[in-house]
Amino acid sequence: VQLQASGGGLVQPGESLRLSCAASGLTLDRYAISWFRQAPGKEREGVSCITAIGGSPYYTESAKGRFTISRDIAKNTVYLQMNSLKPEDTAVYYCAADQRLGPRCYYYNMDYWGNGTLVTVSS
User: Fold this and answer.
1) Maximum Cα–Cα distance for the chain, whole Å?
2) For residues 21 and 78, is the Cβ–Cβ distance under 8 A?
3) pLDDT tens digits, the chain, 123 residues: what are they?
């Protein structure tokens, strides 16, 4: 199993980025995918997740209204569209897969982790 996160970069406050998490060795209809981030000197935190059945996604408070998670089953890829970025969004972003099926997705006990992609929001 591989999860390849990409799409990070340096942007100015208010700008947007779209992160991608390309999965291989698993299929998205059997795994929930969660996005996490870890800012310098801080604990890793969950940002958003989408269940294997593709139901309503979940967002942490900091992401609500600005971030949108989506997936393309044909491409086996999950996206995180991040709008109105703020300096406090600066972090390494990771995606992770969870084989628990059901109506919820989680930010713990993940089965597989991808590499990180660095997002820097600075003027």
Assistant:
1) 41
2) yes
3) 999 999 999 999 999 999 999 999 999 999 999 999 999 999 999 999 999 988 889 999 999 999 999 999 999 999 999 999 999 999 999 999 999 988 889 999 999 999 999 999 999
